[in-house]
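#onboarding

Welcome to the new folks! Below is a worked example of what a typical request in this channel looks like: someone posts a single protein sequence, and someone else replies with the predicted structure as tokens. Don't worry about understanding the tokens yet, we'll cover that in week two.

Example request:
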Amino acid sequence: MKLKLLFSKYRSLILYGIIGFSGATLDFVVFAVLYNLFNLNPLIATAVSTSLGVSNNFILNIRFNFRVRNKLHHRYLLFYSVGIAGLGLSILIIWLLHDIGGMNANWAKLISIPIVVLCQYLINSRITLSDDFTNKAYFRKFKNG
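Example response:
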């Protein structure tokens, strides 16, 4: 019973994590295929694979998690931007922990994941995939502080 209550309370965050895992898996598999099988430059391979992973996450989140259907082009651009910002945050955390702090890179990456996922979830759930997304007054709150 507690598990059911916990799931219902954090349903959106749990689904966001599951969907994010599917996107990360897709990202890794596409990168591995493009880089290892097709000898594509690793930077180009990661740009393609990351884009597919973020797009996968957007489609699954609007379909199964947040269930929004309006302003999809605008929402996608913002979701994609949040995904790229998350990549930047992940790089920053890994740089701080590994390059500056001397931590093992694998541990630094593992530590970065929940931080980045939580930040992206908060932005995407409250803005990008929110029901208030089309409410212009909602955006004026951010503009006017």
